[in-house]
Amino acid sequence: MDLWYSEFHTKNVRFSIKVEKQLYSGQSGFQRIDVFESPEFGRFLTLDGYMMLTERDEFIYHDMITHVPMAVHPRVRNILVIGAGDGGVLRELSKYPYIESIDVVEIDAMVVEVCKKYLPQTACGFEDKRVRLHIQDGLKFVRKCENEYDLIIVDSTDPFGPGEGLFTKEFYGNCFKALREDGIMVNQHESPFYKDDAIAMVRAHKRIVESFELSRMYQAHIPTYPSGHWMFGFSTKKYHPIKDLRAEEWNKLGLKPQYYNTNLHKGAFYLPTYVEAMLEDVE
Amino acid sequence: MPNTPLSQHQAPIYEALQELKRMRLVPFDVPGHKRGRGNKELTSFLGEKCLNVDVNSMKQLDNLCHPISVIKEAEELAAEAFNAAGAFFMVGGTTSSVQAMILSVVGRGDKLILPRNVHRSVINSLILCGAVPVYINPQTDSNLGISLGMSLRDVEAAIKANPDAKAILVNNPTYYGICSNLREIVRLSHQHGLLVLADEAHGTHFYFGEALPPSAMAAGADLSSVSMHKSGGSLTQSSFLLCGAAVNQGYVRQIINLTQTTSASYLLLSSLDISRRNLALHGREIFAGVSEMAEYARKEINAIGDYIAYSRELVNGDSVFDFDISKLAVNTLNLGLAGKEVYDLLRDEYDIQIELGDIGNILAYISVGDTEKNIERLIGALAEIRRRFKRDKSGLHKAEYINPIVELSPQEAFYSQKESLPIGSGCIGRICTEFVMCYPPGIPILAPGERISAEIVDYIRYAKEKGCSLTGSEDMDVEFINVVR
User: Where are the domains of chain B?
Assistant: First the structure.
């Protein structure tokens, strides 16, 4: 049998992974959810056919969306995570003993259930006692919060499905309000390479800089995402993403993740020329 | 299949168009694009399916000017679905329905009783036919600055003072969702020999609602103009004119044909047919869902603070006899922002386009096409606007009712010898020959035949300053106004 999963990265580019078998397929009120088993990437989760994570390379994404802000902010106590139904972000956060609470807001309960059953590698993050799961629209949740969080992590899907509301100016503005005066917001920020992804990336950045005075982007290499070159946003009310890096202090924690380290932290903020140029246009 | 009773599951015009496609006729008639083949750019923009049914009246498609087959059947089904004695498919917008409705019941010199907060199409009809308006002051809610419905006492007084009046027109509901006591107005009017006309441009859903105000036909009105293209879901510009049992439908058809196109668009006609079927079969659940979304949004917007998203609490048994809970109107004055300013912020800052912003209110149109996600965006953006833009509210006006001083009939004024004056102190006391209105909602500040007061000049200046879009006058910039020489 020759069974393959394919995702169109553009109309003219197709990315395929050989599949061993399909473990799950279901339709929630929001999206279609599938889990596959593959020889190269292990298990992987797709939503509406779009790749969300694979067991093999999810560590890159989850390292970069959590440890970067955690190595900058000196005393993160209360965290809000939007999206992240797979639990990967929570797994990384649970390694920090001094965090007091983690509110997770996922719109689709079925994603959480499916991940708990088929993707324990990331869903183990839900086991942390400090995690409180809220099944709700992210924009609605954050609208009601004021001055409550030190860190907000926006682990959203793409801006064309249920995650659309998480790429809007009203969402970023409400996040700004929900953060304490020295808070940081980190978000999944699409890719600069293919045209449609780049448009989404630039548009989101434009909307963020309208709410946050200081917002920088950083990058990582994620093999299963379109073009492999992926961006994150670091928006901050006080701390500078590089100047305020507390490398020594963070290294003392002894976490030793597989992708992130404090040298890479600095390097990740140095962007290719063409990406810088795109961002300058909207800043 | 003659004599087979029609059912609401059918859509005769739509079915005839499907059949036409299968026949593969060779077109040697208009339209000249010939199923789109002659206009490739338009076809690629609108789609082949669309151009394929942009056809002309022909044997199997009937003719809107004189319906005898599929259009007649579709109109009968619409009448049944809307609980009316007759229904006309209209293709010139609800403006054409309003016009036909008024021209059918009043002529030169006849009196029509109406609230002042009517749509411009109503007074335009009076210019056409020469009838005289007798205005009733719609009560005003002084906190919100919106006009309400007609008080029954005022209606009665107007009828008594004008025993020769031919008809009365009622908004059911107003743009903001407010209903007068239509059943009582019908009873009272019929008792005195007046016909009752309803402007239901914003009330299509009343025919399919569980907890909504009564529709005009249910209340016993004689004619009603229903904007199917608003809450009914049909294409823009398509509309219904409904008739009660006492109306001579043949005469109404003649009146319609005075101004209606002889090349009615089958895109519009089929959209009415399909939408009627959808409403008849699923209307109740659709509008229950819409009301639920509006109620949710109202609760959340009120919880933000400063905004007043009003609803049934306005009901006072008279000038607000009932409220349409599917409407989402929000007063913004406590934020220190005019409704128009919030409207502009939503569009310019948050990419959200709402229906209207006036001096003190915004109106977001909620329909079957909305999603919870988009409702959350609207609420989230309103919360942000309050956080970012709230300011001292002194210096904000409320829209107030300005009693019109009618000196001439709209027709007489419109066709009189006129001169153009700058809007300012120089035109105070003169008789205006044209309209001035904010659009939307399109309710006249001045109508032809009315004396211009200092209050009106101030109001126009303020509305312009707040960015309201003023229209109606010959001068596109509304700097000058035509008055009787």
Answer: 12-280, 284-389, 410-484
